[in-house]
Design brief:
The structure is a homodimer of 370-residue chains.
Chain A: E1 24-26, H1 27-35, E2 72-76, E3 82-84, H2 86-90, E4 95-102, E5 125-134, H3 135-142, E6 150-161, E7 164-173, H4 174-177, E8 183-188, E9 191-192, E10 202-204, E11 217-223, H5 230-233, E12 237-238, E13 247-248, E14 255-258, E15 263-264, E16 271-273, E17 276-285, E18 291-297, E19 305-306, E20 308-312, E21 319-327, E22 330-340, E23 363-369
Parallel strand pairs in A: 2-11, 16-23
Antiparallel strand pairs in A: 2-3, 4-5, 5-8, 6-7, 6-11, 8-9, 8-10, 12-13, 14-17, 15-16, 17-21, 18-19, 18-22, 20-21, 22-23
Chain lengths: 370, 370
């Protein structure tokens, strides 16, 4: 069972001058890849991602929160400003919900021409069971006044981005903020939030890309205008050139991923497997929508076959899919794509935009069958 | 408090063709950086690294272990082969120990010329409280016979590396294996091992680089020869050219790291801080040895000042250090270096070798004070 050397081309990588620019990455991007964290795709075998394997983006530094002094401030255009300790929040009605979260930049490193930022291939994902209290109850207690049109959520983390010194801030309109599933969460997989996931409190915005779920949340403010903070007006936009305002990045687009089958080569991550029946499995999700269909291709997208759909873990979490492949000897490129309940199909070609957001092009997995 | 634009050069990164090869990385390396996980350096504020932030290397895939069928097999040159369930192992004498673990490749991405593999800058570290049972007791119960000279530890994880299909295997000689601190661990920070950390059982080899602490351990075998497996004879060697046998990589070399002070720029990770007294802190460790001295430079290594040493977390874990810097306006390169109890001093220049192992050159942190 010795493979016919699928890896010899990786024994030494070519000189950087001999490689295509799309295969080269900057030092700054690698620094980000090592601070942020991806979910190894084989971990999709678990319906809920084990602790420490959920994807992670940390825009600035992980703040050092002193829980004895920490309060959540709720203010702005409200009739009753609130100042709540973590214990106050934990005494409120609690709910636990499994949610699939994905980075808006997932798929960015697959773009051509390349876009410089956190270089995700497909691993910027994870599903956790979050416990907290509905945001709606907090807003109702504070009592939004008539002029309020947006809610601004601020974190304790501070940094420089796009030449602007800022704390991390995002906003939602009132209708979104009052949806039943929006939560303030303090537990993840039955444990207190870890520092890197937003301890002590995080906004959870199911169905939206992860940038909406503000970590280290310590301030909620009702305002009368559209909020024009950096993370709303500059980052997280769909644009063709960086200078354009473009459209805001919001809900998670449909995507399926496959657990790469067989045995990996360490450096290239190319897979090696034996001929015969192979079970291909993975997960698919579509943000606020459901997944209606998953298809698998074993010939690099030329033909597609329907996969079997399994249970959905929860309304806002992924569902399993499976497909039996009769693998024949040779090199193959496997692929998978999903369709959501509004008939949006994952594209085979890239969804290119200047910030590398929402690129849900179908995953490709290179395998050698022997 | 608007910084004078320390980040403008990162607004758009230059074309790859305009950059030095040492600033460019291959797609395969970025894939590894996203599967493996670094510890953000600000997390050194905690004596024990919170769960999910410890560094992580996964050579192959994370195996799917069925605990109902799992046994640890102890065999080879022993008088009494053993087959132990996880419950059997948990019933044995237990011990909890804080240990600083570091990847042998930590510092690899700082080398010039570059070495292609997992591209760590300085974040391949972590300190955990591990709980398990001493290896010595298991070996004594099995009863090593006279011919035994090495103990081979095998994991359940399988992959292709260096064109060899293998399970992950490492060996230790008898004297090392019988040291009091060697353990078989099943808990990390008071919780059952997570899949990515070796569930259900991991060898813990305090003082050695992380490759010795075999994850997903399911077989221990006493053998009469030097073990020549890939991870011993080919990987984890200090060599000047890959083809040479070189010397084995063993104990952790002395290193100190600094929590980057001030506020980060998101993309470049350059730091911005205000003039005046700044407290610099971090951790230092030296594997099996102690740390006798930590020095800080605020002028890119031209002059050095002694830092104050804090408590050592445990015999095999890091100790804190601190230093008060009177920061003046301008750009500065901060650096820190440690000396161990055998007077080995961290080098300012790189420790280059063909596999990028044990490069403990002093960290450099670029800051703008305003």
């Amino acid at each position: 069972m010795t493979p016919e050397n699928p890896t010899s081309r990786f024994a030494t990588l070519p000189d950087t001058s001999e490689r295509e620019a799309t295969d080269l990455f900057h030092r700054e991007e690698v620094q980000l890849a090592l601070r942020n964290r991806g979910m190894p795709l084989e971990i999709m075998r678990y319906p809920v991602t084990p602790s420490g394997m959920h994807y992670l983006v940390i825009h600035f530094d992980i703040p050092d929160v002193n829980i004895d002094q920490w309060k959540l401030q709720v203010g702005g255009l409200v009739s009753q400003p609130l100042s709540l300790s973590l214990d106050d929040i934990k005494k409120r009605p609690a709910r636990t919900m499994a949610v699939t979260m994905e980075c808006a930049g997932n798929g960015r490193a697959l773009l051509n021409p390349r876009v410089f930022s956190q270089p995700w291939f497909n691993e910027g994902i994870g599903t956790a069971e979050w416990t907290g209290t509905p945001l709606k109850g907090i807003l109702e207690e504070a009592g939004l006044t008539d002029g309020a049109v947006n809610i601004v959520f601020s974190g304790a983390d501070q940094g420089i981005q796009g030449e602007v010194l800022q704390v991390y801030q995002r906003s939602l309109n009132i209708a979104e903020s009052m949806r039943e599933e929006m939560m303030l969460v303090y537990e993840m997989n039955g444990q207190p939030l870890q520092p890197q996931h937003g301890y002590p409190l995080r906004l959870l915005v199911p169905g939206w890309y992860g940038m909406a779920s503000v970590k280290w949340l310590d301030r909620i403010e009702a305002v009368e205008d559209q909020f024009q903070g950096y993370q709303m007006a500059k980052a997280y936009r769909y644009t063709q050139v960086r200078e354009e305002p473009g459209e805001p990045v919001t809900l998670i687009r449909v995507r399926a991923l496959m657990i790469p089958p067989g045995i990996p080569d360490t450096m290239s991550r190319v897979r090696w497997l034996t001929a015969g029946q192979q079970s291909l499995t993975g997960r698919a999700w579509a943000g606020r929508l459901g997944v209606s269909r998953v298809e698998v291709s074993v010939d690099d997208g030329s033909t597609w076959s329907e996969a079997t759909l399994g249970e959905q873990v929860s309304t806002f979490a992924w569902r399993e899919w499976s497909f039996v492949w009769n693998a024949v000897r040779g090199w193959h490129t496997l692929s998978v794509r999903a369709t959501d309940t509004e008939e949006n199909v994952q594209p085979i070609d890239q969804f290119w935009n200047a910030q590398g957001m929402g690129n849900n092009m179908a995953q490709r997995v290179r395998v050698l069958v022997e």
